[in-house]
Design goal:
126 residues; mainly beta; four-stranded antiparallel beta sheet
Amino acid sequence: QVQLVESGGGLVQAGGSLRLSCEASGRTFGNYNMAWFRQAPGNEREFVAAISWSGAWTKYADLVKGRFTISRDNARNMVYLQMNSLKPEDTAVYYCARAAEIMDGIRLSSSEYNYWGQGTQVTVSS
């Protein structure tokens, strides 16, 4: 059973930064693509960023491109999301997710991910 545990959320002023962390259990972490999604109240869960199993490839939602950076450390079973220049519209619960299958291509749909963390709240004040 895979478990994902996010941390690092909190309250920050607009223009500030936060670094989210996600620790994964299991020996096969390095075989799977990982992603971050977020969900604001009243909104559907949306894709934020994803990283390939090797860390060589990344994809970002247009809304966060240039401000957020996803990275991973396979030796530590960790994936990170560095968030800079935060805006009030970035306020949401952020979820770490693991891809359902071993694959080379990065997928953006939440249906392609079958393990999820409990989420960490990020609140950006104006």
